[in-house]
């Protein structure tokens, strides 16, 4: 198992399949996926032999905040520690070591998983807010 820092062009169909496996990613178009990859500061692709089994990305200013997004593992590979491999790669990435706050949004059932890396729900009175297009 290796963690790569990019998605190769031949892996785009695999990434699209991976995105369709997660409820919050199912409506991503090919054009949006290409732009996501181009504009993300850090990309983490989990490769098992020659197969893409996991993905995550980070948006950051490299000083104050980093936002972890789109952590997803292929359904047939879940439960084998691949999500932990992705998270470990993120929190130990050299470019993020001086960032004051690494943040993410997750479903309540995943709080125990992310707590293993020091993520907490204790964020004061902060609320997630969203302005969605159309």
TrEMBL record:
GO terms for molecular function: acyltransferase activity, transferring groups other than amino-acyl groups. Pfam families: Acetyltransf_10. CDD domains: NAT_SF. The keyword Transferase applies. Residues 1-134 form the N-acetyltransferase domain. Keywords: Transferase. This is N-acetyltransferase. It comes from Kribbella albertanoniae. The lineage of its organism: Bacteria, Bacillati, Actinomycetota, Actinomycetes, Propionibacteriales.
